[in-house]
């Protein structure tokens, strides 16, 4: 199917993905909560990330590992999960720190998940994107 995404939409999609991952990492940091990953999974799968089919699929790889984390997927547990799946790569810990530091608002994980899904649908020619507000 023909891709119908502008360059601006592509970058906005990446920002939504980063915001979602950062929000999940932050929300999970109390060590007790899996709410953000559980709710995000209702809307998003690893295939919805822009880097899914790329050689270095860091964002989709993070989301995939978050799904399978038995414990809340905060930075330490995510690194442990990636390692147990033989998916931990050089630079991953730094990227997790960056996602946490640049997350606009950790309480908006559901909005970010919906944005990731809408951009994915646009990228695959399924619908136009109508995202309210900015990230």
Automatic annotation (TrEMBL):
SUPFAM superfamilies per UniProt: N-terminal domain of DnaB helicase
GO biological process: DNA replication
Gene3D superfamilies: DNAb Helicase, Chain A
DNA helicase DnaB-like N-terminal domain ranges (all copies): 14-118
InterPro entries: DNA_heli_DnaB-like_N_sf (IPR036185), DNA_helicase_DnaB-like_N (IPR007693), DNA_helicase_N/primase_C (IPR016136)
Keyword field contains Membrane: no
Key words of the record: ATP-binding, DNA replication, DNA-binding, Helicase, Hydrolase, Nucleotide-binding
One MF annotation (Gene Ontology) recorded for this entry: ATP binding
Record protein name field: Putative helicase
């Amino acid at each position: 199917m023909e891709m119908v995404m502008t360059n601006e939409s592509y970058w906005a999609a990446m920002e939504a993905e980063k915001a979602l991952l950062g929000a999940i990492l932050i929300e999970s940091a109390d060590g007790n909560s899996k709410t953000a990953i559980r709710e995000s999974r209702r809307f998003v799968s690893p295939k919805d990330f822009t880097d899914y089919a790329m050689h270095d699929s860091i964002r989709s790889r993070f989301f995939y590992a978050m799904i399978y984390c038995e414990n809340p997927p905060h930075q330490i547990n995510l690194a442990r999960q990636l390692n147990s799946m033989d998916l931990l790569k050089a630079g991953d810990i730094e990227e997790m720190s960056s996602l946490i530091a640049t997350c606009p608002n950790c309480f908006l994980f559901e909005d970010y998940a919906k944005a990731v899904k809408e951009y994915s649908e646009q990228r695959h020619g399924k619908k136009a994107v109508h995202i309210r507000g900015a990230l």
